[in-house]
Design brief:
28% helix, alpha+beta
């Protein structure tokens, strides 16, 4: 059996469910993980992830922001900084986040850490809009 655990500091999304596959936005690009995948650990980027629980027709999708993914012979463990499901996304809030982040990046003098924070906020908001608009 190939099981997945997907958690954030605030919630447990999937714990020990048998899966058919999971796709995550890894540091080096999108990573599709199937049973029998080579063991590895990778960092996650902000983007849209998906997973299919064994025996279900539905493919679950969510926006994930930063974190780690560990693949081992028994399955995959994903520790994400944050995660938004389609139901949790508010497109208007995401649009406002994009406007605010772009404004800060063009009008304020930001240190490297704050600039990177704005880039992550932009990526999360854009991914949220894409997922909520069924573009992914």
């Amino acid at each position: 059996m190939f099981k997945m655990t997907l958690v954030t500091p605030e919630k447990k999304i999937v714990v020990g469910s048998e899966i058919e596959q999971v796709t995550v936005p890894a540091y080096s690009g999108m990573l599709n993980i199937l049973p029998g995948h080579t063991p590895m650990i990778t960092s996650l980027e902000t983007g849209i992830m998906s997973w299919k629980i064994k025996g279900e027709d539905k493919t679950h999708k969510a926006v994930v922001s930063s974190g780690y993914c560990e693949v081992h012979p028994q399955g995959v463990d994903i520790l994400a900084e944050s995660l938004q499901t389609t139901e949790e996304i508010n497109i208007e809030d995401s649009k406002k986040t994009i406007i605010d982040a772009e404004k800060k990046m063009t009008t304020e003098l930001l240190n490297d850490e704050n600039f990177e924070l704005q880039i992550r906020e932009l990526a999360r908001a854009r991914s949220s809009i894409d997922l909520a608009s069924n573009k992914h």
